[in-house]
Structures are given as structure tokens and as C-alpha cells.
Amino acid sequence: MRLILLGPPGAGKGTQAKFLMEKYNIPQLSTGDILREAIAAKTPTGLAAKEIMDRGDLVSDDIVNAIISERLDDEDCKNGFILDGFPRTIAQAQSLEEMLKEKQMPLDAVIEIRADENILVERILNRAKESGGARADDNEEVIRKRLKVYKELTMPLVKFYQDLGLLKSVDGTKNIAGVRSEINDILES
Ligand code: AMP
């Protein structure tokens, strides 16, 4: 199963990815997690990305394209994968199309998790409280910025994947179990 989870910050992509990982025994490829690991390890990529991430902007397409292209070659991606937080721009989606063609890994579906802005801000602020402020970009000002970036740069992917016949949308304002069952119904049908 090869999937993309598309949706704004706080929509629940990470949470749903965890369920799908177990169900299909495939890895979750989160560019955000990989970049945070690079920051923690103080690699050159991490050092370049930190400031950009802290202010809620997107790191360059080249950096994330390279991260994903390498990661897709790992053995554990042979049965499939869940992309979480990638692609985030039309240029990334085009690069991904090329990569997947070359690697002969066609996508099965792109699942868009929808939710409105106020719910998202509230959820991310709660996440920040629960995690004791582990993420530097989980404060209200940066969250609003991340949502704006999502609308401007990532929302166009909805049409991109609609045109490819891959898009399925679910209602991300439902509770975790509700969203999970909507996704399961889509993937099983
Ligand atoms: P996330 O954990 O997916 O919310 O990502 C956190 C931050 O990492 C984003 O606000 C971006 O700064 C950066 N990031 C993650 N994925 C990407 C991507 N595909 N393209 C550009 N920047 C990304």
C-alpha cells in the first residue's frame, strides 16, 4: 500500500499514519520527523533547516526531495509506505511523480484530512501543552503561519491529485476513531 496523507498541521496525519503502519506493516515517512532528527543530530541539513522550521516556513524542495528519494530506496519501503508531510508544494509533487515512476512504485491513494483553522490551532496548542512544548513551532503565531503556508503552497495539491484520480477526502473534525474508520472504508473499498 503506497499512500500520501495530505492535510494541514494538526489534522491528525501523524496519528492516522501510526494506525496505517500497523495495519499494513509499512513505514511512515515524515519529512518533519526526519528534519527534527537532523536538527537534534546537528547535521548540515538540520542546521540549515532549523531556523526555517522555527518560523513556520518550508525548507527547500531540494532538501526534502533528496530525503524522500533516499528513504524510498530502503528495504522497508518495498511493501509500501505512508508519506506524511510530503509533498507540500506542486514542485515536490512533480518530483515525487518522477521518483515513483523511476522506482516503479505507483501510488494507491492520496488521503486528504480536512479540518478548519480554529480546530487546528486549538489541537496544536493542546499538543504543545501535552508534550511540554517539545516543538519550537507549536506556538500560536507560528501555527497561523504554518496554516497560511499550507493554504498557499500545499492546498493546490488537492487539485493536482484529484486530476490524477487519486484523491480521497475525509472529515478530520471527527474524533480519532471516526477518522480512522473513514480511512479504512476508503482503503478497503
Ligand atoms: P511537520 O512535522 O510535517 O508539521 O513539519 C514541520 C516543519 O518541517 C514544517 O513547518 C517545515 O518547515 C518542515 N517541513 C516538513 N516537511 C516539509 C516538506 N515536505 N517541505 C518543506 N518543508 C517541510
Report on the structure:
The chain has helices spanning 13-24, 31-40, 44-54, 61-72, 90-102, 117-130, 140-154, 156-163, 176-188; strands spanning 2-6, 28-30, 81-84, 109-114, 167-171. The chain is built from 9 helices and 5 strands; from the N terminus they run E-H-E-H-H-H-E-H-E-H-H-H-E-H. The protein has a single domain, classed as P-loop containing nucleotide triphosphate hydrolases (Rossmann fold). The protein is an alpha/beta fold. Helix content is 57%, strand content 12%.
What is the topology?
Elements: E1 2-6, H1 13-24, E2 28-30, H2 31-40, H3 44-54, H4 61-72, E3 81-84, H5 90-102, E4 109-114, H6 117-130, H7 140-154, H8 156-163, E5 167-171, H9 176-188
Parallel strand pairs: 1-3, 1-4, 2-3, 4-5
Residues 9, 31-32, 35, 52-53, 56-59, 64, 85-88, 92, 137, 146 line the site of adenosine monophosphate.
Features:
189 residues; alpha/beta; 5 strands; binds adenosine monophosphate
Helix fraction, binned, reads: 55-70%
CATH superfamily: P-loop containing nucleotide triphosphate hydrolases
Low-confidence stretches: none
Query: Could you name the CATH class?
Result: Alpha Beta
Largest sheet: 5 strands, parallel
The structural class is alpha/beta
Give the H and E element order. EHEHHHEHEHHHEH
User: Mind telling me the C-alpha Rg?
Assistant: 16 Å
Q: How much β-strand is present in the residues?
A: 5-15%
Number of domains: 1
Shape: globular
Can you tell me the CATH architecture?
3-Layer(aba) Sandwich
In DSSP terms (H or I, runs of 4 or more residues), the helix count works out at 9
Heteromolecules bound? adenosine monophosphate
